[in-house]
Amino acid sequence: MTAEPFAKQLAALEARGRLRRLIPRAGRDFASNDYLGLSGDPIIAQAVADAIARGVPVGSGGSRLLRGNAPEHEGLEAKAADFFRTQAALFVANGFVANLALFATLPQRGDLIVADELIHASAHDGIRMSKASAVFARHNDVQSFADLIAAFRAEGGTGRIWIAVETLYSMDGDMAPLTDLARLAASSGAMLLLDEAHGTGVFGPAGRGLSAGLDGLHNVITLHTCGKAMGVEGALICGPRIHIDYLINRARPFIFSTAPSPLMAVAVAAALDRIEEASDLRERLKILRQDAAEAICAPLGLPSPRSQIVPIILGEDSRAMAAAATLQEAGFDVRGIRPPTVPAGTSRLRISLTLNIGRVDVAALGRELQRIVG
Fold first, then answer.
1. In sequence order, which residues have a C-beta less than 8 Å from that of residue 340 and are 6 or more positions away?
2. Three-state secondary structure string covering 143-188
3. Could you confirm whether 356 is annotated as catalytic?
4. Which of 156, 190, 239, 322 falls 20 to 30 Å from 77 in CA-CA distance?
């Protein structure tokens, strides 16, 4: 009896073509976020092996505020603050936890969060936990952000404004207008929360992300996840010392979580070194993007990609999932993306370009896509 509601809901999802299942890795990698191919990097692996050899423990043993605070965590945070040119950094388990901590903790009662309508699910969940009010601006529309801020002030709102965007959107592959948003933040006295999940490692000087040049400002907080282009795990919240200290004291997702493994802190520190010197990898990824423009986008009548993420919007859930299944059978690991991850009517194939594949693979995928969806 107790399982009946769950069974009905799962059956309803299956009837709508939205039931999710875990499937094993197979085929050429056009699905992961391992953009620079660093998840199997021998230099990072050796750093971890060396740490094990000198006795760094696998487990942290507790939260950071108890006995879980290891020298490796503090060393990483100092290194990250220096790398991202900000006052302080805080290492947490992953990007989802980081967004929960940021939105649930920093905006206060009476404040207003103005977030892009396509911001990540973790930000939405954090916003629901926040004491602040929240509104959502049209995607990448700076005027929409400005209008919502003006309306808040006109209605007597006196709290702080928090502008929240992803610098690179994971399902559309497009970039936030950061220069204009920074100008708006400065003129309206707002804080900028910039989620660099898909920009870190791939863009910016030394892979510091699309926000490089902004992340040291007093009104900017950046989130750099470590499980994508960096190839490891965890997330780094970077910003003014006062905000990091406040998170340490008030962020429940941080306070009441067991600290990440000290070994992962070692891995992330090594990954920072790798992306700093990875201009050759970024150039190779740029070439793959150019190949995708010619082999995939042009034949399908799509604009050239601005990033390593190439969406092919097919509309109906069933069409996207059938195309993905056909591609997987042909040896290409391409995943279909459906609502609620993307808006209704925009189900798609999400092509992710990584250095786990090569130019020949991109050309082969382009031919298969022309056959299936062209």
1. 121
2. HHHHHHHHHHHHCCCCCCEEEEEECECCCCCCECCHHHHHHHHHHH
3. no
4. 190
Choosing from 174, 195, 215, 317, the catalytic residue is: 195
Domains of the chain with CATH codes: 17-36+279-372 (3.90.1150.10), 42-276 (3.40.640.10)
User: Does the annotation mark 243 as catalytic?
Assistant: no
The verdict on whether 166 is a catalytic residue reads yes
228 is catalytic: yes
Is 374 a residue whose pLDDT tops 80? no
Q: Please state, in angstroms and rounded to a whole number, the distance separating the CA atoms of residues 341 and 168.
A: 16
Catalytic one among 72, 196, 198, 219? 198
- Taking only the tens place, the pLDDT of each residue in 184-210 is 999 999 999 999 999 999 999 999 999
Q: What's the average model confidence in pLDDT over 270-290?
A: 98
Residue 94 designated active-site:
no
With 0.90 as the threshold, say if the pTM is over it.
yes
